[in-house]
Design goal:
Layout (H helix, E strand, L loop, with lengths): L3 H12 L3 E6 L5 H14 L4 E5 L3 H6 L9 E3 L5 H9 L3 E4 L1 H9 L8 E6 L10 H12 L4 E6 L2 H4 L5 H9 L4 E4 L4 H7 L5 E7 L3 H22 L18 H10 L8 H20 L4 H15 L9 H12 L2 E5 L49 E6 L5 H20 L4 H10 L5 E5 L2 H13 L1 H23 L19 E2 L3 H6 L2 H32 L1 H8 L12 H15 L6 H13 L2 H8 L3 H11 L15 E5 L6 H5 L3 E4 L4 H13 L6 E7 L3 H26 L16 H10 L17 E5 L7 H7 L3 E5 L6 E2 L4 E7 H10 L1 H12 L2 E7 L23 H11 L4 E5 L2 H11 L8 H6 L13 H5 L2 H8 L9 H7 L3 H6 L2 H8 L2 H12 L7
Parallel strand pairs: 1-6, 1-7, 2-4, 2-5, 3-4, 5-6, 8-15, 11-13, 11-14, 14-15, 16-17, 19-20, 20-21
Antiparallel strand pairs: 9-10, 10-12, 16-18, 18-19
């Protein structure tokens, strides 16, 4: 069902037979608009509709109710089949490359195409393949309409008059703007809004400290970047730095002078991207995963990074560790050592014997709230903190509240109503997260409980640390002295002050992590051994191993027995000396019972989520136990239309997103009779809230800019596509005719043949064929085995962009490509094409050395030219410069032959390559071997080939005959001595 404002958008588009450009706010159900247009077309078909630039998610979201739903036209289909599809009256998804090739090859019946629907119009430009396809189609079918759509208004204002330039390349005259604050849109969405509950969750102390430190580091990087005086200061704000487009803004300003910038400036741009991820992942990852990400940053960034050496960066790493673990002495007091640590309160522990404030020589032990140093008689152990995400508890409470409200409503006939609710799709609570990883973790949290989820992540982290340490130390000898890796029950020994000076806090921390990892690995091995033993001797093993606190347990599944035994072993060994471990172990004993066995064997998905969480409830701090409703998790990044499928009545937005909020508003407006309740979970005073509010402000400012541009926009009269000039070459010819000499036939110029260029099919991914066509050249798309562009029977061009050039050198593909061009064409050309908005240089002149360096691109190019002397290098500043270069190279040259270009490099049935003289008459491998013999040069190897049949005959020729063929006695004597020399042997 369409809303009134959506119907108005469609009616405005249908008013103009030429089409138009529609820009609307994100989340206003763009796929439903496309589906409605396809439905209208199917009801009264007047031709074929081709849909361009559609992403995979958009293809899945566009559903046509008619049986003739849009299908894909791919390159796998044979050309005759594609031609028949173009002639039908249906709707098809097609890529711009395939459509352009088919238009140039005259496979598309132009009169049968009714129009084009172009999605993601914000990515178009004058040289894009979509603009090329529109120009080709409009030149032969002026009545074809073009309707373009975009739901990213902030991308439409990036650059000078971008909306106007996109309209020009699409040949449309009308711009339709539909922001969220438009009267029709706001009226439809606010007529019956959903019930909204805004929950502000306070962040923990370490989270606030990490966010503050990351913002300080980002602000410091911005200040350093402002000092360069090479970027616009207005765009360099922390608010704009929260979005991915910030990197594009900075790089777009710095690209023209990128080769002149120093290493520090380039690194600052990269550091801003890293800091944005640090702030973003803080509210998305759990504490252990976040620490793992920071550890990877410490390794990958290394000494190259600038932000990692700032004072605020140390706070980020230290606070991230405090969320996961802390070092304590074996007697329960905080370990500080001789570092500059801050005073930390002593943690409460259960001890059998009291520990006073005794301290050994050179140590500090505090009985109060002061610093605690290294004790001469104690060891250092890890105390797990495993801070849970604050949103987890709030999400649990929200789900319990939803279940209570439904239970009150369905109180009479409770059993029947509950079973009905579980089966009803609309009764499922939808929880929207940013990505699929967050969805899986929240599902584990609901199923297993928060403590078990954090415990599993913690064990993975420790085992990963242990594996990395083992990989690094595999080739080194083991030290003679004991290090304490699992040998002393996971306790790292701490000695006197002398030993403490040698071992820093980082080493003690690393040793403690390795000890904990070793203990967990031992527990895992014991669990596997117990499982294998219990499979054959279940009863005997139960009696033998059922000692200690677990001796009176009930019989359960093998996995549960081995798991609880492993936990008891860990407590006895004192790997993690904390009260939380004791509580977790006791509650696990209570939780293991018969009903859990039923849970593992199989119930419905919704019931299993409820039962699993109830079994783990005693291990968490959430009490009392309460039932939960069925939950469905949804990843916002997947861009699926799940609201229309699930039709939920309660939605929990775990990670707020502007586009998804708009989708909820549209869903509620389309279902006015359904009650929809939305819970928003925000971290209070966090960058998450600021990013959400900044995205709304950015969208509104983008629409305001587009409205001003629309009021001042000057559109030519012939921009409707009906006055399209089919031959662009007339423009260049007219300039010559005006300046021609009037004595020669009154200024009349003889008709010139149209320039033809044979282009490889794969080159239509780039914009160069589009520019060549604009210059009036005829483009012939074929499949080439050698080269990318054939300018004449003698000239073959291999085009390389900068990124492709580096990759081709690294893989060795460029060497083979140049070798084949040199073999088949007299003038092989390597075209190195730069981007127009980037620097026309590989690197700074000061960075180019005098010696040949294998890692230098200049050295690689020099070696390539030395190896292939006939190769010509052509440097191009931009696409338009390349078109001019091609025109100059084709001057006084014959036009290329299409059939011959297709046969070059393709073997025949007999294995002989067409038009390859060397392949027909000579053995290429033997020729290469001959040219490497001593005395054989480029001037005499052809005479040697003419004078003897093969290498065996060459080896038997006398010196006089060799001298006659090689043109000298010295060269012949050198070759004969080489051929007659004895090979050295070992005996």
């Amino acid at each position: 069902m369409l809303l009134p404002f959506q119907e108005q958008i469609i009616s405005d588009l249908l008013e103009d037979p030429n089409g138009g450009l529609v820009v609307l706010s994100s989340g206003l159900s763009l796929p439903s608009l496309i589906s409605s247009l396809l439905l209208l077309h199917s009801s009264s078909p007047q031709g074929t509709i081709l849909i361009l630039s559609a992403s995979d998610s958009q293809k899945h979201s566009i559903h046509n109710p008619n049986p003739n739903s849009p299908s894909d036209i791919t390159s796998d289909l044979p050309p005759p089949h594609r031609a028949s599809l173009y002639a039908s009256t249906g709707a098809f998804f097609v890529t711009s490359r395939i459509l352009t090739v088919d238009l140039l090859s005259s496979r598309v019946p132009h009169s049968s195409v009714a129009g084009l629907l172009i999605l993601n119009a914000h990515s178009l430009s004058e040289t894009s393949p979509e603009a090329f396809a529109v120009r080709l189609l409009r030149s032969t079918n002026p009545n074809c309409y073009v309707r373009a759509f975009s739901d990213r208004p902030h991308s439409m204002v990036a650059g000078f008059a971008k909306a106007e330039r996109i309209m020009k390349c699409l040949s449309v005259r009308r711009l339709h703007l539909w922001p969220r604050f438009q009267v029709f849109v706001s009226g439809d969405l606010e007529r019956d809004p959903p019930e909204v509950v805004d929950l502000r969750v306070p962040m923990s102390g370490p989270m606030r400290g990490i966010q503050r430190a990351a913002i300080e580091a980002m602000d410091a990087c911005l200040k350093e970047l402002r000092r360069t005086n090479k970027v616009d200061v207005e765009d360099l704000t922390v608010e704009s730095g929260l979005f991915k487009s910030f990197d594009d803004i900075v790089r777009r300003q710095l690209d023209p002078i990128w080769h002149t910038l120093g290493r520090k400036t380039k690194q600052l741009v990269s550091d801003l991207r890293t800091l944005r991820k640090i702030v973003d992942y803080l509210v998305r990852f759990d504490a252990v995963t976040y620490l793992k990400y920071l550890d990877s940053l410490r390794v990958s960034e290394g000494v190259q990074s600038v932000w990692i050496f700032a004072d605020s960066s140390h706070k980020i790493f230290e606070l991230a560790k405090k969320r996961v673990y802390q070092l304590v002495l074996s007697d329960g007091r905080k370990y500080v050592g001789d570092s500059k640590g801050k005073a930390i309160k002593r943690r409460k522990v259960k001890q059998d014997n009291g520990v006073d404030g005794e301290s050994g020589e050179g140590t500090t032990v505090s009985d109060g709230t002061g610093d605690v140093g290294m004790s001469g008689s104690g060891g250092v152990v890890l105390e797990e903190v495993l801070e849970e995400a604050p949103k987890w508890k709030v999400l649990r409470e929200v789900l319990q509240e939803i279940a209570e409200e439904r239970q009150k409503i369905n109180l009479p006939g409770e059993g029947e109503s509950n079973s009905k609710d579980v089966g009803d799709v609309g009764e499922i609570v939808l929880v929207a997260c940013k990505d699929a990883c967050s969805c899986m973790q929240l599902e584990d949290f609901i199923t297993k409980g928060p403590q078990k989820v954090m415990r599993e992540e913690w064990e993975k982290y420790l085992l990963g640390k242990s594996e990395l340490h083992g990989f690094q130390k595999r080739e080194k000898k083991k030290s003679q002295g004991p290090k304490g890796f699992g040998l002393l029950n996971g306790v790292v020994p701490v000695g006197s002050r002398e030993n403490a000076k040698i071992s820093s806090i980082c080493m003690v921390e690393h040793d403690a992590l390795m000890a904990a990892a070793s203990e967990i690995r031992n527990l895992t091995k014991e669990e596997i051994a117990v499982e294998e033993s219990s499979h054959s001797h279940a009863t005997g093993i139960e009696r033998k191993k059922g000692r200690g606190k677990g001796g009176k347990r009930k019989a359960t599944t093998k996995h549960q027995n081995s798991r609880s035994k492993g936990d008891m072993k860990g407590v006895e060994n004192n790997v993690f000396s904390s009260e939380k471990e004791d509580q977790r172990d006791q509650t696990k004993q209570k939780a293991i019972s018969g009903p859990e066995e039923k849970l593992l064997t199989g119930v419905t998905k919704d019931k299993s989520i409820l039962r699993k969480h109830d079994q783990e409830e005693g291990a968490t701090e959430y009490q009392p136990q309460k039932p939960l409703p069925p939950v469905q998790f949804y990843a916002i990044d997947s861009n699926q239309q799940i609201l229309d499928i699930m039709k939920p009545s309660v939605i929990v937005v775990y990670h707020p997103d502007v586009a998804f909020v708009r989708e909820i508003e549209v869903y509620k407006a389309q279902n006015p009779g359904r009650s929809v309740k939305v819970y928003f979970l925000f971290y209070e005073d966090s960058m998450e809230v600021q990013k959400f509010e900044a995205s709304i402000r950015r969208e509104n400012s983008a629409f305001e800019s587009l409205i001003r541009q629309k009021s001042l926009m000057m559109i030519p009269v012939d921009q409707d596509g009906k006055c399209f000039v089919s031959s662009s070459s007339n423009e260049s010819q007219s300039l010559v005719s005006h300046n021609s000499v009037t004595r020669k036939a009154g200024g009349r110029k003889a008709a010139e043949n149209e320039m033809k260029i044979i282009v490889d099919m794969r080159e239509f991914m780039s914009s160069l064929p589009n520019v060549l066509h604009q210059k009036g050249m005829r483009i012939i798309p074929v499949t080439l085995e050698v080269g990318d562009y054939i300018l004449s029977p003698l000239i073959c061009v291999e085009r390389k962009s900068l990124s492709d050039l580096f990759q081709s050198f690294a893989s060795g593909r460029l060497y083979n490509q140049v070798e084949t061009m040199v073999r088949y064409y007299r003038i092989p050309v390597l075209l190195i094409e730069f981007s127009q908005d980037k620097s026309f240089s590989f690197q700074s002149v000061s960075d180019i050395g005098d010696d040949v360096v294998p890692t230098s691109i200049i050295s690689k190019l020099s070696l390539l030219v030395l190896h292939f002397p006939r190769l010509r290098l052509v440097w191009s500043r931009s696409l338009h410069a390349t078109a001019e270069i091609f025109a100059s190279l084709k001057a006084n040259q014959d036009e290329p032959d299409e059939s011959r270009a297709m046969r070059v490099g393709v073997p025949t049935e007999d294995g002989i390559v067409e038009n390859d003289v060397r392949a027909e008459n000579y053995n290429t491998s033997a020729v290469e071997f001959l040219r490497r013999l001593p005395g054989v040069t480029d001037s005499n190897y052809r005479a040697i080939m003419d004078g003897c049949t093969n290498l065996a005959e060459l080896a038997l020729l006398p010196v006089e005959k060799l001298a006659e063929l090689m043109g000298g006695q010295k060269a012949a004597k050198t070759l004969r001595e080489f051929l007659d020399a004895k090979c050295p042997t070992m005996f």
